[in-house]
Specification:
Layout (H helix, E strand, L loop, with lengths): L6 E6 L6 H6 L2 E4 L2 E4 L2 E4 L6 H9 L4 E4 L3 H11 L5 E6 L7 H9 L6 E5 L5 H15 L7 H11 L1 E5 L4 H5 L5 H10 L1 E8 L2 E9 L1 H15 L5 E6 L3 H13 L4 E6 L1 H8 L4 E6 L3
Parallel strand pairs: 1-2, 1-6, 6-7, 11-12
Antiparallel strand pairs: 3-4, 3-5, 8-9, 8-13, 9-10, 11-13
Helix pairs in contact: 2-11, 3-4, 5-6, 9-10
Length: about 280
Amino acid sequence: MPTASKVAFVADSTLGLSPEGALKQGIHVVPQQVIWGNRTLRDQLDITDEEVLDLLRRGERLSTSQVALEDLRSTYETLLQTHERVLSVHVSGHLSGTVATAMAVAREFGERVKVLDSWSLNGGLLLVLEEARRLLIRGVAWEHLEEAVAPYRERVRGYVLPETLIYLHRSGRISGLQRFMGGLLSILPVLEVKGGRVLAGPRVRGFKEGLRRLVELFRRDFPDGGLVYLAHAGNPEGARTLGEALRAEGVEVLGTLRAGAAVSVHAGPGTVALFAGPRG
């Protein structure tokens, strides 16, 4: 039976950690792709988070795409030279084709590579990966890992607050009229990540009220507390304010992550997010 120390952990770059930062936590990051005009750039390798945000603020049109098959295959091949198994945890299959591609590549390696759909992204992905690692340490069998993770994964939630409606409009998630009315009334939507999908949550009047609503939503879904990661797209002050509000209520914040290219492109610079899961 493979133990956690004999398993290499892989995640895609929606994780919200730099490749170097992730490696310090024993996680190997494979890059999503950022599309800029006719250029395809590897997230955090060919283009940084700061460059993504700068391009968006300048009005450039960007999109994101799944991890390249070749990057997954080469990562698995390299890691299997020093580890018995590879656990590859990825952004929700409802949001990206990365999971499907990873599963196709994993079949080339038999039982040595297992792919898990996190049903989330960013901090939610990290929470699911960390739970899988805890389960392996506790002795859960490799062949039963996914079913063991499933109850935890189902309870992971994300709450995403954009600072403006501009980028949701650009990505086609809201209409021009909705953007106009929202801007006129200073109305912002809270987006909820649940069951692998991004759903429309409550609407709030202004960003400050939105931060308060994120805390309320966390309390609604985790009345007994939970594990929390924050994330932001170039808005450290917003994340700091949210973290202070949570800590004032006795909530432990595990860390603050980068929102990453996928969140930044769709929700825009200034976005702040809260990802939470139950205590293991």
